[in-house]
Specification:
Elements (H helix, E strand, L loop, with lengths): L13 E5 L4 E5 L48 E4 L20 H6 L7 E7 L13 H25 L5 E8 L11 E7 L4 H17 L3 H12 L3 E4 L3 E4 L10 E5 L11 H22 L5 E6 L7 H6 L3 E5 L15 H4 L3 E2 L3 H9 L12
Parallel strand pairs: 2-12
Antiparallel strand pairs: 1-2, 3-4, 4-6, 5-6, 5-10, 7-8, 8-9, 9-11, 10-11
Helix pairs in contact: 2-5
InterPro entries: GalP_UDPtransf1, GalP_UDPtransf1_His-AS, GalP_Utransf_C, GalP_Utransf_N, HIT-like_sf
GO cellular component, one term: cytoplasm
Keywords: Carbohydrate metabolism, Galactose metabolism, Iron, Metal-binding, Nucleotidyltransferase, Transferase, Zinc
Length: about 375
């Protein structure tokens, strides 16, 4: 290619920088034209019953632990029967490693905490986009309650809680083992690595530019309007410039809210509304129950003023589907050994999502 050639972002390969994690993604838009003979996922349609007597999460049913769910009518929060982290376990001390070389290469930290399951609805067949808006508001309120209550337990009762990672894995393609609408919250005595990367990037950006990274990024996106999918009074949804997953999105608060604990009633409803619209667009994209992993990033529990100044509430949505309801993106080969790579630009993905209905779910038209 000569220096005078026109660079085409929709056809020429290039890298994009992710300031949140100080990393790069390779963009190869021309690869979207290649034929696909690989694995195809089953098409997920809304065919589940309203109640499943064999479901561990439906009201009144016994879970694997033997505990019986109450006959709940809204959201339900309970401690995970198979938690990834536990409160009661022996402490690990660094002094156990006397060899300096072993300390250098085999660093280990003790992690304590608790894990929770949050059922979004008693109805087995209603995912977030299919829930009435008031029910999605209840989910947001449950997220806030978890954050506030666990912060109090840490402060008043000495529980070793530092950070709560609230997330949802939707669909079997994302490893979800139960289709009942639910999310999880893992509360740990440490800050997770991905969140810690963001905090370091936020602090570095403020030091270098005397501003907040996400505040400035949102201002730029709202000015350019090439990657904005949805917007309301309190939040904006963008396909981030550095997105890795095909239809990845970032939900960011417009005002500086360090955590969900700072939300007022209006902001809670605005978050519920924009999440419902976004997930409806996802389902409408390929007319399937669209799989994704989604999570909230915010300030640590009982954050210092400095941590509150640095943190900025946002949500990541990582959906794997690439070309259709049956073809997904795999992070393998170069993506694992080199760096992440995507086959369509963020702008192309945003346009696809913008053009979709966010108010009427495709299943309502069947």
């Amino acid at each position: 290619m000569t220096r005078n050639s026109h660079f085409d972002f929709t056809d020429n390969s290039h890298r994009r920088y992710n300031p949140l994690t100080d990393s790069w993604v390779l963009v190869s838009p021309h690869r979207a034209k290649r034929p696909w003979l690989g694995q195809q996922e089953a098409i997920a349609k809304p065919t589940e019953p309203e109640f499943d007597s064999k479901c561990y999460l439906c009201p009144g049913n016994a879970r694997a632990s033997g505990e019986v769910n109450p006959k709940y009518t809204s959201t339900l929060i309970f401690s995970n029967d198979f938690p990834a982290v536990k409160l009661e376990q022996p402490r690990l001390y660094e002094d156990d490693y006397h060899n300096s070389l072993k300390r250098r290469f085999m660093k280990t930290q003790s992690v304590e905490g608790n894990c929770f399951v949050l059922c979004f609805s008693p109805k087995h067949n209603l995912t977030l986009p299919l829930l009435p808006l008031d029910d999605v508001v209840n989910v947001v309120e449950a997220w806030k309650k978890l954050y506030v209550d666990l912060g109090k337990e840490a402060k008043q009762n000495g529980k070793p809680y530092k950070y709560i990672q609230i997330f949802e894995n939707k669909g079997s393609a994302m490893g979800c083992s139960n289709p009942h609408p639910h999310g999880q919250a893992w509360c740990c005595s440490t800050v997770p690595s991905e969140v810690e990367k963001e905090f370091k990037s936020f602090a570095k950006y403020t030091s270098e530019h005397s501003g907040n990274l996400l505040a400035d990024y949102v201002a730029l996106e709202r000015k350019e309007r090439e990657r904005i999918v949805l917007e309301n009074d309190s939040f904006v949804v963008v396909v981030p410039y550095w997105a890795v997953w095909p239809f990845e999105t970032l939900v960011v608060s417009k005002a500086h809210l360090s955590s969900i604990a700072e939300f007022n009633d209006k902001q809670q409803r605005d978050l519920a509304s924009i999440v419902k619209k976004l997930t409806t667009k996802y389902d409408n994209l390929f007319e399937t129950s669209f799989p994704y992993s989604m999570g909230l990033h915010q300030a640590p529990l009982n954050a210092t003023q400095e941590e509150k100044n640095t943190a900025w509430f946002h949500m990541h949505f990582y959906p794997p589907l690439l070309r259709s309801a049956t073809v997904r993106k795999f992070l393998v080969g170069f993506e694992l050994l080199g760096e992440p790579q995507r086959d369509l630009t963020a702008e192309q993905a945003a346009k696809r999502l913008v053009d979709l209905d966010g108010d009427v779910h495709y299943a309502e038209k069947l």
